[in-house]
């Protein structure tokens, strides 16, 4: 029985530098590969190349760069730290797409800014909440006084007597309600300005416009009281004037209490501007009717001159109110930004 001899593959031996080398002639890689046997493996070809060619150190030229435009000096190395910024930085040096650590901002078209609303205003919310809490606390502590005032409001006094005596706490309570009335009117006027006049103003903050309106209403109520005092003291005496001022203070306080639900509905429940206007107009009509009635009871009950009370009421109540409204509208138009 014959056995077949198995020959194990031998590792590729490094090929000696057997390629013909002429004097002063450097071989090329293809010449080395051509000198190898026809069946040389890739490992043998690599060994032959490494045996013939040896790496040499790279020596850069120290000669100056002459590749520049005529009339300009030679270029400088980028390693030179004295170069200007424009030489050391390329066109895309500060592009955020190449530098993710830089804040590139936002891309696209800017959206419309959120308009100013009193519902999202923390200051308005805090003021209304404080007004509600303080008003409820004051009303709960002065229930008897309010009941006496409401019961005697339609009472016709005899002569010049002042039937109701008020403590200092009750006077402060009514003064606060008058201040609340001024504040609520200023918020209503600010809402009217945003809806019918404009939304951008020359002022730095919307609170400045609210403060201006508040100052208008405070000045209106103070000047109205001074005007009533001057006229009533001259023609009717100080006792009747004192009784009238007490009644006027009570009516103004009630007006502030009635306006608070309207303002809350306007701010937090999206009551329409027309609904706000009708509600405020209804409250004003009721208040003016009560004021007219009390004026008649105190000053003109024993007189037969109906024309006198009409002139008195128009001169001291209607005319100042119309003047206040004109001043508020002119102020809003003057402070808005006209594009």
Query: What is the terminal-to-terminal distance?
Result: 114 Å
Q: Averaging pLDDT over every residue, what do you get?
A: 80
Structural class: mainly alpha
- Structural shape: rod-shaped
User: Helix fraction?
Assistant: 55-70%
Q: How large, in whole angstroms, is the Cα Rg?
A: 48 Å
By DSSP (H or I, 4+ residues per run), the number of helices equals 10
The fraction of residues in strands falls at: under 5%
Describe the largest sheet.
none
Order of helices and strands: HHHHHHHHHH
Record field, number of beta strands: 0
Question: Residue ranges: pLDDT <50 for 5 or more in a row?
Answer: 1-19
Which features characterize this protein?
59% helix, 339 residues, mainly alpha
Task: Please provide a written account of the structure.
The protein is mainly α and 339 residues long. Helices cover 59% and strands 0% of the residues. The protein has helices at 29-35, 42-52, 85-88, 122-141, 143-152, 168-196, 206-235, 238-268, 273-299, 306-335. The protein is rod-shaped. The N and C termini lie far apart (114 Å).
Question: How is this fold's topology laid out?
Answer:
Layout (H helix, E strand, L loop, with lengths): L28 H7 L6 H11 L32 H4 L33 H20 L1 H10 L15 H29 L9 H30 L2 H31 L4 H27 L6 H30 L4
Question: Could you give a quick summary of the protein structure above?
Answer:
This protein is mainly alpha-helical and 339 residues long. It has ten helices and no strands.
